[in-house]
Amino acid sequence: MAKKWLDFIDDNRAIKALYNGKEPDLSDVSITNVDMHGCTLILDADFYDFPDPLPSRWIGKDYNAVTIRFEMQIVKYKTVEFNCDYKHLSINMESRGEDIAVKIEDKKHKVTFLDFLAKYIEVENIKGKTTK
Fold it and tell me: What gap in Å lies between CA 38 and CA 52, rounded to an integer?
């Protein structure tokens, strides 16, 4: 059986708790920040797959997205393309030996935004957000 994407996340308890054990959809996310420090990649992704029920601290706020900040140790870059729309992207993760193959792409326009191998993927933080 293929791994679910949450299986690739070290300590995925916060995401599982927020989504009540369900796995948020990776087929329509927006990348709002990419920051590279040596072999470490920080990536902020807006998810439009909203948790149900909402966390009590989010009730009454006009949030329409969930921002998850990921930290990853990159082993090898294959593609880095910054000339694309950062909205409506799809994220795919799969095992590649001991590493995690991550591909972020705009399938509609057939553009690969990022394609790399990671040693680990961690969640740095999760927050509600209002997007335009």
Answer: 37
Each residue's pLDDT tens digit, 42-98: 999 999 999 999 999 999 999 999 999 999 998 888 766 665 557 889 999 999 999
Answer for the pair 120, 82: CB distance below 8 angstroms, yes or no.
Answer: no
Distance from CA of residue 66 to its chain's centroid? 10
Length of the chain, please?
Answer: 132
**How many C-beta atoms lie closer than 10 Å to residue 20's C-beta?**
9
Name the nearest CA neighbour of 53 among 22, 25, 20: 20
pTM for this entry: 0.90
Spatial contact of 19 and 58, defined as CB atoms under 8 Å apart? no
Q: Going by C-beta distance under 8 Å and a sequence separation of 6 or more, which residues neighbour residue 116?
A: 41, 72, 74, 75, 76, 77, 78, 79, 101, 102
